[in-house]
Design goal:
Elements: H1 2-50, E1 54-58, E2 64-67, H2 69-75, H3 84-89, E3 91-92, H4 94-105, E4 110-117, E5 124-133, E6 144-150, H5 152-192, E7 196-201, E8 206-209, H6 211-216, H7 228-231, H8 240-247, E9 252-262, E10 265-277, E11 283-292, H9 294-324, H10 331-346, E12 350-356, E13 361-369, E14 374-375, E15 380-382, H11 387-395, E16 399-401, H12 411-418, E17 422-432, E18 435-445, H13 453-529, H14 535-566, E19 574-577, H15 578-596, E20 599-604, E21 611-614, H16 616-632, E22 638-646, E23 649-656, H17 678-684, H18 690-700, E24 704-707, E25 715-722, E26 740-744, H19 748-760, E27 764-768, H20 771-779, E28 787-792, H21 796-807, E29 816-820, E30 832-837, H22 843-852, E31 877-881, H23 885-897, E32 901-905, H24 908-917, E33 922-926, H25 934-942, E34 952-956, H26 963-969, E35 974-977, H27 982-997
Parallel strand pairs: 20-22, 26-27, 26-28, 28-29, 29-30, 31-32, 31-33, 33-34, 34-35
Antiparallel strand pairs: 1-2, 1-6, 3-4, 4-5, 5-6, 7-8, 7-11, 9-10, 10-11, 12-13, 12-18, 13-14, 13-15, 16-17, 17-18, 19-21, 22-23, 23-25, 24-25
Helix pairs in contact: 9-10, 9-13, 10-13, 13-14, 13-23, 14-18, 15-16, 16-18, 24-25
Length: 998
């Protein structure tokens, strides 16, 4: 028993051990599964934490125990600890959300798309909610997991696609409507188009057509839908290629093609066939447009026919013109040819030309009778019989009478034409210089005729040809007369030129021959007057001198008048000194003014430039003439020369207090050989050319010379000439700034002019008219003058007393600038710094004298000074070349008076020989000498010496036009005409000496 139980015990033990081991293994396996579950759960939690899909878990009691960050971010709420009902409360639609919630509560799976609205911004999310239970399905122990996937963007895209699809369908319906409307509009357009137009589909069935199409092709409105071959077979046969080309997309057109609608009835048409397209771009058919050009084609044919006629007519006209231009053809031959050609060209029975003559008749130039083939030019009709007819011809370019019964045919013409069997008439007037000359008539016999436009144009052309021939004949006669007259005029011109040349030679010869002895008379009489003579002898010498001067004036006037009259005045355009040039005028005439007891005053405005452009010689001549005239007609008072410069024009005014000019005589003042009246000529002398010459010269310079007619006393002449300023560095605008001066001048006008000039230079001036006023001014307390400007009008003894009283008026002597009217002889009075001659023509000597008063240094006067140096050209050597003994003696005496050392030669060869041996400051060269004349001699001098090294001055008695230019072109520096005047000689030589020294 024991043995039997032992194995059983052993087996039980083994069984227990096995059970224990199995239990132990089961425990180990459970624990391991739990550990693996926890690891898996941990990993799943990390995945759910990081996924972008929202997720939450609930307990079996419906409490949310966990939610991942993605759900919090999506909804904006931390759902942990809240109930699941709160989460589904915002879900829409509510019924579907309730079903999902019920499935979750029953631990059943559920899946549904829901909408969820966020509370913060009312944004509605489109979600896909997936509910899955957890555990074994025991609600109290297990919960559920809710997966929330955001499909908002996908749903929005689906919505957008739905809307786009809806819009696409809507647009498709609209396009169909638009296509239908377009079709209706196109059909309406085609129907109402002004041109013939038809629209066909691809089977060439009518889709639409215009009313013009129906009218042009005689069709009814029932053709829509019918084929072209059925409706218009003529536009079907032979057109297959055209239709096929249009269906292929090409455009076919013809400008002109004949179409016969029915036999005997056709038209010319211009057509175009082109495709039309469907909305999808496919060719839907063709569009055919047709224009009826039948009238244009016919007009073109008529025009071509007319052009052919015109060409033929023009050919005829050219031939006729050529024949008319034939100088060998007479008028009768030309007129006969014209009537024949136009009669045949127009197939008219009669062609005739009629002109009015001096006898009062219409004379027939030619009448061609085509049927008889003869001419009848012998007829004449009285003008008075056809008065109404001629009146109508003056009013109208054509008179067209297709029948004499027409109301437009005047009765007088009807009566005349009926008498010769005419039934129709075409009349064209002939005109010459605005006057009715005659008429061209075309007559048709036996029957009326419709005169076409071509007939009328041909008749007008015929009238033109007739008029041209008549005018050519008149012109030939006039040209022959003119040619004869021109021959006569040419002969007269040649005779006049010969006479003018002879006159010029005569004037040149007379100028030379008269001036040569005049040079001796005037020169030696002037020297004689300056010598020691008794009163009677001096009177004789003065008479000789004044008579010679008067004769020279007449000669100069005649020469100047001849130059102006012949247009041979040559003007210069060079820079010249206004004050120096016009100062010569004052200096030349001041002795004459002193002799007459007339004050000669010059006033130069400060704005006048030193140098201007122009002709100084002509300006000087005009000013000399005007001032000389003023002195001639002024016995007391003053003569003033005022110079201004405005807008590049030099203004010169000469005013006097003389006898004046009566108003009735002023219109003739500038006439040639006229003076104010005959008594003036007898009393004062003269040629009456002076003012005429002056105006002529001024006008040649581009200026104006006028008389101021507003003056009540004396006269005032003004002239202005262009004178642009020439560049030159001038002096200071106020060179006497700070100077204090006392002026003593009894003559009011001279005192005013002198005071104004000193003011312009910047000086302070006290102007007085008497010695008493001057002494009172000097005696004023605190007043001191730098210089006294004293005008001397008294004798030498009284002058000395005046100067002594002025010198004694102050403690220290004041420098005096003395202005004398008649020259100063003997020793210079004390304290006299400079002595100048009145009037002060040039301002520079006065300015230099006043400026020198600052250093109290005596200043020698310029050529104006009466007390000029005895030898102003001392130290100079002059070679005088002169063949005339008298002129040589005179020139030598004048040069020696000026301080020159003179060597004489009688011709050019002698002069050249002397120049080889000796040196000279300048040469005075006579132009006309035997042997080698002055021009050739000067040319040889210039081969060795320049114009600066050895100046040459021309001496000539020839004052004609071009002489000065000839001298200068020969190489001479200056030009002096005889008779020689000491002042002109001195001025010219001093200028040359200064230029050479510079």
């Amino acid at each position: 028993m024991a043995d039997v139980g032992a194995p059983f015990a052993t087996s039980s033990a083994l069984l227990i051990i096995a059970v224990v081991c199995a239990l132990a293994a089961g425990v180990w396996w459970v624990r391991r599964r739990r550990r693996d579950a926890r690891v898996l759960e941990s990993r799943l939690a990390r995945v759910l934490e990081r996924t972008s899909t929202g997720a939450l878990t609930t307990t079996g009691a419906g409490v949310i125990e966990w939610c991942n960050p993605a759900l919090q971010q999506l909804t904006g709420v931390d759902w942990k600890g809240r109930r699941i009902e709160d989460f589904f409360a915002r879900m829409e639609p509510a019924p579907q959300a309730t079903l999902v919630l019920e499935s979750l509560r029953g631990l059943k799976s559920a899946r549904a798309p829901l909408k969820w609205r966020r509370a913060d911004d009312d944004e509605q999310l489109r979600l896909l909610v997936d509910v899955q239970p957890l555990g074994k399905g025991e609600p109290r122990e297990d919960g559920a997991i809710v997966i929330v996937d955001d499909h908002t963007r996908e749903f929005e895209m689906y919505d957008e696609m739905d809307r786009a699809r809806l819009q696409l369908h809507t647009r498709e319906f609209e396009m169909h409507d638009e296509i239908d409307r377009a079709r209706l509009q196109m059909n309406s357009f085609v129907e109402h188009a002004p041109a013939a137009m038809a629209m066909f589909d691809r089977q060439l069935r009518y889709v639409a057509c215009s009313r013009r199409w129906l009218a042009d092709f005689n069709l009814d409105e029932g053709i829509i839908g019918r084929s072209q071959a059925e409706v218009l077979p003529a536009l079907s046969r032979g057109w297959d290629d055209i239709y096929a080309a249009a269906m292929a997309g090409r455009i076919e057109r013809r400008d002109e093609e004949y179409f016969e609608r029915v036999p005997g009835d056709g038209l010319y048409m211009q057509w175009e066939v082109r495709p039309w397209h469907e909305a999808n771009g496919d060719i839907g058919g063709i569009l055919m447009m047709v224009t009826d050009v039948t009238s244009k084609v016919r007009q073109k044919a008529e025009l071509e026919q007319r052009n052919e006629m015109l060409t033929m007519r023009n050919t005829v006209l050219v031939a006729l013109m050529t024949e008319m231009a034939n100088p060998h053809r007479t008028d009768d031959e030309v007129f006969r040819r014209l009537t024949e050609i136009f009669g045949e060209l127009l197939q008219v029975d009669q062609v005739g030309f009629w002109v009015k003559d001096e006898s009062g008749q219409l004379r027939c130039l030619d009448l061609f009778l085509r049927r008889e083939e003869k001419h009848d030019p012998s007829r004449a009709l009285p003008i008075g019989t056809y008065g109404e007819y001629l009146t109508l011809l003056e009013r109208y370019p054509l008179l067209v009478n297709e029948s004499l019964e027409s109301s437009s045919c005047p009765p007088d013409l009807r009566a005349g034409l009926e008498s010769i069997g005419v039934h129709a008439n075409l009349s064209v007037p002939l005109w010459k210089q605005g006057q009715l000359l005659g008429v061209v008539c075309l007559n048709q016999l036996d029957a009326a005729r419709e005169w076409s436009l071509d007939d009328q144009a041909a008749a007008s052309s015929l009238a033109t040809l007739v008029r041209l021939r008549i005018e050519a004949t008149s012109r030939d006669k006039a040209e022959n007369a003119l040619r004869e007259r021109m021959t006569q005029l040419e002969d007269a011109r040649q005779r006049a030129e010969s006479a003018d040349h002879a006159k010029s030679e005569f004037l040149a010869t007379m100028s030379h021959e008269i001036r040569t002895p005049m040079n001796g008379i005037i020169g030696f009489s002037d020297l004689l007057r300056q010598s020691r003579l008794d009163a009677e002898q001096k009177g004789f010498a003065s008479t000789i001198h004044s008579s010679a001067e008067a004769l020279l004036t007449i000669i100069n006037d005649i020469l100047d008048f001849s130059k102006i009259e012949s247009g041979m005045v040559v003007l210069e355009h060079i820079p010249w000194d206004v004050r120096e040039t016009l100062g010569d005028v004052i200096e030349l005439l001041s002795p004459r003014a002193r002799d007459q007891g007339v004050a000669l005053v010059v006033d130069v405005n400060e704005r006048v430039p030193d140098l201007v452009q122009g002709d100084p010689g002509r300006v000087r001549q005009v000013a000399l003439n005007l001032v000389g005239n003023a002195l001639k007609f002024t016995e007391h008072g003053h003569v003033s020369l005022r110079i201004d410069w405005v807008d590049d024009r030099l203004l010169v005014e000469v005013e006097d207090t003389g006898i004046g000019i009566p108003e009735s005589l002023r219109p003739h003042l500038f006439s040639r050989f006229r003076q104010a009246d005959g008594s003036t000529t007898r009393r004062f002398g003269g040629t009456g050319l002076g003012l005429s010459i002056s105006r002529g010269l001024v006008e040649r310079m581009g200026g104006v010379l006028t008389l101021d007619e507003s003056t009540e006393r004396g006269s005032r002449f003004t002239f202005s000439v262009p004178a642009a300023a020439a560049s030159k560095e001038g002096q200071s605008a106020r060179p006497l700034e700070g100077f204090s001066m006392l002026v003593l001048e009894p003559e009011p006008l001279s005192r005013a002019v002198l005071t104004r000039q000193l003011w312009r230079w910047g000086a302070r001036v006290d102007a007085t008219s008497t010695l008493t006023e001057a002494l009172e001014a000097m005696a004023r307390p605190g007043v001191r003058f730098d210089v006294l400007v004293v005008a001397d009008l008294e004798e030498a003894d009284a002058r000395t007393v005046q100067l002594e009283r002025l010198a004694g008026a102050t403690q220290s002597p004041v420098p005096v600038v003395l202005l004398t009217g008649g020259g100063l002889r003997g020793n210079t009075p004390p304290h006299v710094l400079a002595t100048l001659t009145k009037p002060i023509a040039r301002s520079r000597p006065l300015l230099e004298a006043l400026q020198a008063s600052r250093v109290r240094a005596p200043v020698n006067a310029r050529p104006e000074a009466a007390s000029r140096p005895a030898s102003p050209l001392a130290g100079t050597r002059a070679l005088l070349v002169e063949d005339n003994v008298i002129n040589q003696r005179l020139a030598q005496r004048l040069l020696e008076r000026l301080g020159c050392t003179v060597v004489s030669a009688t011709n050019g060869l002698d002069a050249l020989a002397v120049l080889e041996r000796e040196k000279f400051t300048f040469v005075l060269m006579d132009c006309h000498m035997p042997g080698l004349d002055g021009y050739e001699a000067t040319a040889r001098i210039r081969e060795k010496w320049t114009a600066t090294e050895l100046p040459v001055v021309a001496l000539t008695a020839d004052a004609m036009v071009g002489q000065r230019e000839r001298c200068l072109s020969a190489g001479m520096n200056a030009y002096l005409t005889k008779p020689l005047r000491e002042l002109d000689l001195l001025t010219t030589l001093r200028r040359l000496v200064r230029s050479s020294a510079a």
